[in-house]
Amino acid sequence: MPGVTVDEERRKVFDEFARARMPELLRFGHALTGSPHAAADLVQDALERTMLAWARVENQGDPEGYVRRIMVNRNISIWRRHRRETLVLEIPEDAGRRGAQRAEPMVRDLALWDRIRALPPRQRTVIVLRYYEDQSEAQIAALMGSSVGTVKSQASRALAALRRDAAQFAASDGGPTTDGVGR
Amino acid sequence: MSQQPPDDEFERRLRDVFRDRNLGVPVSPDALGRIHAGARRRQQRRSAGAVVGAVAVIAVVAGAIGLNAGGGHGSNVAAKLRTAGPSAFVSGTGFPDPLVVPVSESPGAVSSPAVSVSPPSSAVPTVAPTAPTATPYPRAGSAVPADFTPISVTAVNDKTYWVLGTQQCGNVVCTAIVNTTDAGAHFAELAAPHAATITVDNTTRPVFNLRFADGDNGWAYGDALWTTADGGATWADTSLPAGSVKDLEAARNPGAAAGTAWAVVQPTTGDGYELWQAPYATGSGTGSWEQVDLGTDPPGGTAPSLVVKGATAYLLAGDAKNVEHIYVASVGVATTTYAAPCVPVAGVFSAGIGSLWTACSGAATVSTDGGATWHAATTPSQITLGVVGGIDATTAVVNQGSSLVVVSTTGQPKTATISSKNANFSFLGFTDAKVGYALSQAPNRLWRTTDGGATWSVVGF
After folding, report:
1. Cβ contact B311:B253 at 8 Å
2. Poorest-pLDDT segment among A96-110, B166-180, B288-302
3. Any idea where the domains of chain B sit in the sequence?
4. How far is A73 from chain B (nearest CA, A)?
5. Which residues from A are below 8 Å from B38, CB to CB?
């Protein structure tokens, strides 16, 4: 591997780590970005950076935490570059077909998932770290390089927006899909 | 572990979304190989950067010695260096010599990034020329390379527009700006701000977007704010307003050769957003920036979106309580606030002829009275809208999935014809009733329509 300062043995360890953790990292990336394609790009970017710093990362003892920190911060940076991006996964025809085939609760989940994806990136990141990663506010603050107060306010605003949107969705949609939404 | 209070029902539902939703992404069989290849490229870029950096240090030291040796003629020496012409390169790298940064107003020459525009007195604070860096930048007037990748587009009429993007400069990716005055038949490379388009580290102040108000006055913004008063021949880093510029729009005052630039700023400290304004004029550049009073409930929630029509700015933003407002600001007039029609999809906000458009959940929504009242256009049902580009009071183009759809308040939606599938659109905007532009990502492409959004073609550079 010309030009890469990772010796053969370390590379094997890195490869094992990457192979083992990639599925979960991709899942985490999907939650962060809202897109499976963006998740793949984000994970590749983070693992490339990790590979180059592998000797140091390995010595620190938490390589997965290192990768996730890169993913969180790179995702916010990338979003700032493409601030007008809206991730849309399905065309209407597909949405109609799926809605007809699946039970109503899944439709409600999709609505909430869409609203999570529409959150500003920092708020979405806080929500993902708190409700997907089950991290404390202090852990989230450390990961994002911000204060606990900022994390609290971001989480509060995101939750308020999600609750209100869920209530609006429920009110506008009517019927059985309103149960359990927006309470 | 979490020390949060117990979840309520909605929070449990949130966890269920993350748990039950099929978030799994298949691992590509060659993923590891691509990671290795990507790491190799990064390492090679770092090595090349280190070489160029070392050359820059040597050149700076040599330059300093030369200046000192010149005694009282130091400025003349510097002038000679700056006007040495674009042909000098660091041997072997293909990068422009960092100290040889020619200054010229004529096409075909490289422009210094640090040469200040000529602002009105007491307007833009003086920006001292900064030390040229080793980062290579495209030469103004040169042909646009095939790998030019568009990021942001801005147009002043149906034929003249500028595109901010990136291209390969030797072994590194550099920021570039191209311009056309014949609707895209020909593009010319302009000087670009010496700023990256991505965050490299904590000290990076990248620019992500570009706006031109006329043929002279333009702004490249992001974590930094660069201005030009000469059509992009030279750029100055104003560093004002302090903070990240989230949105910037400008428009001429009706019937005048001057206008107002408006900027949404996220201050370096704090969570909220501010609106700033500055006058600009042909020949004198951008004046001093002043913060606009947005009343007792200033933006503090979702990321704001800004549009400008004539001398009035319209800001769609949530306040600290996440209540969405339309803030209407004009120079010298107290800000008016209206209730927003909804929490817009990703803060999308667009100006059409005599109209403002936004994308509420499931419907493109228009106001024809400056944001006071809103009503929905007929949009395909059961869809999640993406970006929206307003055309006029009755018509807009919206993004749904990988498609574009022309929607109307008076007729049925019509799916546009686009020359490529699988586009992920991130921006839509029109300069008149016929000509519009769209940006898509992965891959990044610029699209253009000349028939009101019915058909779209990829712009080649």
Report:
1. yes
2. A96-110
3. 8-458
4. 10
5. 44-45, 48
Helix (H, G, I), strand (E, B) or coil at B239: coil
A84 has a chain B CB within 8 A of its CB: yes
Cβ–Cβ contacts within 10 Å for residue B154, how many?
25
DSSP assignment of A98-144 equals HHHHS-HHHHHHHHHHHHHHHS-HHHHHHHHHHHTS---HHHHHHHH
Rounded-to-integer distance, Cα A19 and Cα B28, Å: 11
Overall average pLDDT of the B284-298 stretch: 90
Helices (H), chain A: 8-33, 36-52, 54-60, 63-81, 92-101, 104-118, 121-131, 137-144, 148-173
Cβ neighbours for A133, distance < 8 A, ≥ 6 positions apart: A28
| pLDDT tens digits, one per residue of A15-43 | 889 988 888 899 899 888 887 778 888 99
pTM of the predicted model as reported, rounded to 2 decimal places: 0.56
CA distance A160 to A24: 29
Residue A175 at interface with chain B, using a CB cutoff of 8 Å: no
Subunit contact A81:B208, Cβ cutoff 8 A: yes
User: Which strands form B445-449's sheet, in the order they lie side by side?
Assistant: B417-418, B455-458, B445-449, B436-441, B424-430
| pLDDT tens, residue by residue, A96-140 | 333 333 322 233 467 788 788 888 888 899 999 998 888 888 888
Find which of B28, B166, B322 to mutate to test the A interface (most A CBs within 10 Å of its CB): B322
Per the CB < 8 A criterion, the answer to whether B155 and B161 are in contact is: yes
Helix (H, G, I), strand (E, B) or coil at B337: strand
∠ at Cα B265 (B262, B267), nearest 5°? 150
Domain B8-458 is found in CATH 3.40.470.10: no
Query: What is the value of ipTM here, to two decimals?
Result: 0.75
